[in-house]
Specification:
The structure is a single chain. The chain has 366 residues and is mostly beta strands. Helix content is 11%, strand content 40%. It has helices at residues 2-20, 96-105, 146-153, 208-211, and strands spanning 25-30, 37-41, 46-50, 55-59, 64-68, 74-80, 86-92, 116-122, 140-144, 159-169, 178-186, 197-203, 214-215, 231-236, 241-250, 255-261, 273-277, 283-285, 294-297, 304-306, 311-313, 323-325, 330-338, 345-354, 362-364.
Length: 366
Amino acid sequence: MKRFLSIIASIFIGAAALATELPDSVYVAVKDGHVQGIALDREKGYMYFSFTSSFIKTDLQGNILGTISRIQGHLGAMTMGPDGRVYASLECKDDVIGQGISKRLGVENLSHENSVFYIAIIDVDRIDRIGMDPEKDGVMTTVCIREACKDYVGHTYGCSGIDGVTFAPGMGKCSKKLYLYVAYGIYGDNARTDNDNQVLLCYDIKNWKRKYETPVVFGTVPTNGPEKPLHKYFIYTGNTTWGVQNLGYDAHTGRIFMAVYKGKKAQYPNYPLFSIDVAQKPRKAIPSGLSERHETLQLSQDGLFDQASGVRGWQFKWGSTGLCPLGDGLWYISENHKDKATGIQSCTARLYRWTGLGDQPFKAAK
């Protein structure tokens, strides 16, 4: 027992020491767009932010070191890749979000059938000044997520595109290999029953650079990308508003966390935060509201439990605009804000510690 308590104490002491090396928050503000995602390169001491159609690189004091502007589309959630580049969702589509971005950038809006969804891969080591161009400076490539393009045409499963992204181990596998998980955006529609699941696509990116990565050419929408994902998982949560906004794999708990905008269907608890354990083995089943069998995953057996729906999750105000687990119980989580007087929008990436409590799953680390 003493040895067990000693191990637990050393873990908490170690986490506290790591926390002292990190700032309690990193702040960035912009004139256009609102924060969509954050990522941290802890080793090099950089933080990254996506603000709808721009990308920002800062040091850990919040000093802006470089930016990418004139991004054609909605730059969303993002994550650090195992190769040291940032992977982000990028939508070029015809709905109200796409129309607004097209108007601001002065490009022709896409038709519904030609709407395209990408993983934008950003070479952050090359970002060294303000106002870099994704085409002229060659700091970004794209890979088309063709499965999402197909489902978007008919809004199958309520698909509105893609948003949350993270790297995590394969489901039910002990391998250290990481796969890219991409979450669908899903329309909030109380009249439908086929939109009550989150949809995660799983990809092996091993050959992406050689086979699919495409340089950005402004005004074009290439469709180079894998025809199918390795896996397409369905997770029953009840409907949400715009689906998974941010994904984050936390090695500390062995879970993928999903931050969403709350849904509006009264029969669900409409939690803003869910998680799934990567140790679980997927099973073939018919997801709620659908008629065909798919690979399904179960929510973690933790957090608040809604007995009527069987859904589990957590209440937490933040996370939908940025989740960044550090793997040791610490997280940077985006707190977004808009100044009504000036219209300036900001992100405070605040350092939190995981507690797991249903109504307070995170607590400020400092």
